[in-house]
Write a structure and sequence with these properties.
This protein has a domain of about 190 residues: NAD(P)-binding Rossmann-like Domain (Rossmann fold). A seven-stranded parallel sheet has the order 3-2-1-4-5-7-11, with helices on both faces. A two-stranded parallel ribbon has the order 6-13. The chain is globular. Strand 4, helix 5 and strand 5 form a beta-alpha-beta unit. The longest helix is centred in the N-terminal third of the chain and has 16 residues. It contains 13 helices and 13 strands. By secondary structure, the protein is an alpha/beta fold.
Length: about 300
């Protein structure tokens, strides 16, 4: 989109005070886009206000509010995630409310590459789906989102890989307590499985670019560098000042410590982000994930 189009555009973001949300607001503001963001607390409002966005107080279950906020915007980026046993239902209702408000405007929905399960070598967005139980509910919701392209709407799905950067994100979630309660970083099995990863600042740029994507598009937010879990663990051990302090866990042990997410981290995935680079001009800048993980950049 042109700078003139961007400067007159208004985008409503859910999850704006979160890890990816903050980076996405920054990416939008850099484009002179006016941003409003859903927040649940005064603390979150202060965060998004500090980034240059207007706070809209509410939750993902406030469907009437979501539709109203979406209707007042020119585009939507849905990053918010509801934690709980009703995640699928809340996400589905929120997406429907946001799309009802967006109408023919762009609606960017968040998925995730874990829905592909283990991959056989390097694959793209057209690969077969085989999600772990943790993310299986996403399939039907994303199908519903994309189906609205047939009615003249503009749904797009962005599927981030394992997000890292600035000593936070999914990588830090994996290595947080109780995972390293003994002072070592965990590694599931032999760590030979590959992770499809992306820096938070790069995936934020992808979300901004996706506002101009064709209706019904699906993009993997991943770089074409696939570190193994063992390599990631070694990088994190250096980041915490204990080089080589890695503890091997069986999948059962990892699930006992971390819950269902452990099975997702045990996947062997190599998913290319070439489509986003080719179609949207996405140009990830952080192509050395191990160095970034080791130094916290």
């Amino acid at each position: 989109m042109s700078s003139r189009e961007a400067s007159s555009m208004k985008v409503f973001v859910t999850g704006g005070s979160g890890y990816i949300g903050q980076a996405t607001i920054k990416a939008l503001v850099r484009r002179d886009i006016q941003v409003s963001a859903l927040v649940r607390s005064e603390e979150s409002a202060a965060v998004v206000n500090g980034l240059g966005a207007a706070a809209v107080h509410g939750t993902l279950t406030d469907t009437a509010l979501l539709t109203e906020a979406a209707r007042a915007a020119d585009g939507i980026i849905h990053l918010g995630q509801h934690a709980g046993p009703d995640s699928a239902d809340v996400d589905r209702a929120a997406a429907e409310a946001l799309q009802d408000g967006a109408g023919p405007g762009p609606y960017v929905h968040t998925g995730g590459v874990w829905v592909y399960g283990d991959t056989d070598g390097v694959v793209d967005e057209d690969a077969p789906l085989s999600p772990p139980r943790l993310t299986a509910w996403r399939l039907e919701n994303e199908k519903r989102v994309l189906a609205r392209a047939a009615t003249g709407e503009r749904p797009v799905v962005v599927m981030p890989g394992v997000v890292f950067g600035h000593s936070a994100g999914l990588v830090e979630t994996f290595y947080a307590e109780p995972g390293r309660s003994d002072g070592a970083v965990p590694c599931i099995g032999d760590g030979a499985n590959h992770w499809s990863v992306v820096h938070v600042d790069d995936v934020a740029e992808l979300y901004a670019l996706a506002l101009a994507a064709p209706a019904g598009s699906v993009y993997a937010g991943t770089i074409d560098v696939y570190p193994t879990a063992a390599e990631v663990g070694d990088a994190v051990s250096r980041a915490i000042g204990r080089p080589g302090a890695v503890r091997r866990l069986s999948l059962a042990e990892a699930e006992e410590r971390m819950g269902p997410i452990a099975r997702a981290f045990a996947l062997d995935q190599r998913i290319t982000g070439a489509r986003a680079r080719r179609e949207l001009g996405w140009a990830p800048a952080h192509l050395d994930p191990l160095a970034a993980l080791a130094d916290g950049s």
